[in-house]
Amino acid sequence: MMMAQRLYEAGHITYMRTDSTNLSQDALNMVRGYISDKFGKKYLPDSANQYASKENSQEAHEAIRPSDVNVLAETLKDMEADAQKLYQLIWRQFVACQMTPAQYDSTTLTVAAGDFKLKARGRTLRFDGWTKVMPALRKGDEDRTLPLVKQGDRLSLVELTPAQHFTKPPARFSEASLVKELEKRGIGRPSTYASIISTIQDRGYVRVENRRFYAEKMGEIVTDRLEENFRDLMNYDFTAQMEDRLDQVANHQAEWKEVLNHFFGDFTTQLATAEKDPEEGGMQPNPMVLTSIDCPTCGRKMGIRTASTGVFLGCSGYALPPKERCKTTINLVPENEVLNVLEGDDAETNALRAKRRCQKCGTAMDSYLIDPKRKLHVCGNNPTCDGYEIEEGEFRIKGYDGPVVECEKCGSEMHLKMGRFGKYMACTNDECKNTRKILRNGEVAPPKEDPVPLPELPCEKSDAYFVLRDGAAGVFLAANTFPKSRETRAPLVEELYRFRDRLPEKLRYLADAPQQDPEGNKTLVRFSRKTKQQYVASEKEGKATGWSAFFIDGKWTEAKK
């Protein structure tokens, strides 16, 4: 959706938050003219193809289409590679939907073998039609050519190939399959799918591994609590039914006050019940499960807690008055990130086979690493069940097996750690707090440059000033009061040139880049996710002009359009 937003803002596509399939007459005339000129009359149907919209689709806008069908994806030099691919997909769908059907010659052979009947199907393409611009997805042997035979011919057995098939459980949702499921159940709209998917990740309800969603403990707890007290709201049909009612209001088929009164009448009753004590039917709390582990700061007992960042140990003294309160926490590393050093290469297999069961309720236990000597096993029914066990041994975190990393600040070794936000390298020197990220490819991130204060550049949305930071996506300007102020923007080359003497040596080449394009438009520093390099591009009135320059062989070179 972010790429679609960029394409829309640049004027390359029409409004993208719509589920309409309608096209304006101007769009139809444009695409039919293009098909006739580029492919010929045989690819153009006698009249425009019309498509039925889904029930209750919001059709305030056209279907998503290119603003100009003559603009091809390869000409969008000002856009990222992913945006160009998305534009190509939109362009192909737009053109293909107004072309003639593809034509095939299909053949089916039925062969009698004793008491059995065997069938073979094949087809050959006779006229490509719309597949000229959008190749059709084909099954493995769908387009094979069958031999010429006549009815009654006796066939010889050349080979018998046995094949074994197993049923598989449903695959975990990917982002695409989850959107399809939301569409199937009538939940959400194209404009809300992206926010739904980002929200369940931001709140720690799910995590993404290998592009698949996995439920987290916090998500399970929230779901259980809501299903107990707000069963109607958690019903899959609720959102779809509410969408229908809102559509009825929009179509003047229902009064909005009646719809809201009906909803809030039931919701207010359920909310009042949820606020009662658990003994009276109220929502169950998410209590801390006390353990025998001592707090390293105050000596009180640590307890098992669950938050949006995962399961962790927190001091039981956190609930005390401010002067006595202890905020000490211990991060827990999930078992799938831990290797048992004593077990060697079979650690993962043995861990799966030896999954512990809670001694109190029999539920499978989730395991976490406390430190290199202790592992904590927590009942999977936590916090409803307070069962836990502590295992002693020798353990280490999986992930980084590369060369020894030296701290760039003090020269000490850096070791792999696990925090609330994932793995990172931390300096072993207690007086040095230096850390470095672990990149997605498993490598240690290069050392970060310290922020460069630029008090001469005030922020627009607060009283703060900008500092120049060097992040994973290149340099950028950010408010010095982050996170209080989250204002950021790309730096102008002329700003970097102005403060060139303050820049680290490795960033000074950016200050030497062209400050304007040939038309006099100012240039900004950008970052290419494809090449992992920084470049400069010009903008006019907040929109990219298409001009850019790259640092090649020690000098800045203007890119060819």
From TrEMBL:
Keywords: DNA-binding, Isomerase, Metal-binding, Topoisomerase. InterPro entries: TOP1_Znf, Topo_IA, Topo_IA_AS, Topo_IA_cen, Topo_IA_cen_sub1, Topo_IA_cen_sub3, Topo_IA_core_domain, Topo_IA_DNA-bd_dom. GO terms for cellular component: chromosome. It holds the Pfam family Zn_ribbon_bTOP1. SUPFAM superfamilies: Prokaryotic type I DNA topoisomerase, Zinc beta-ribbon. GO terms for molecular function: DNA binding; DNA topoisomerase type I (single strand cut, ATP-independent) activity; zinc ion binding. It comes from the Bacteria. Residues 1-271 form the Topo IA-type catalytic domain. This is Omega-protein. GO terms for biological process: DNA topological change.
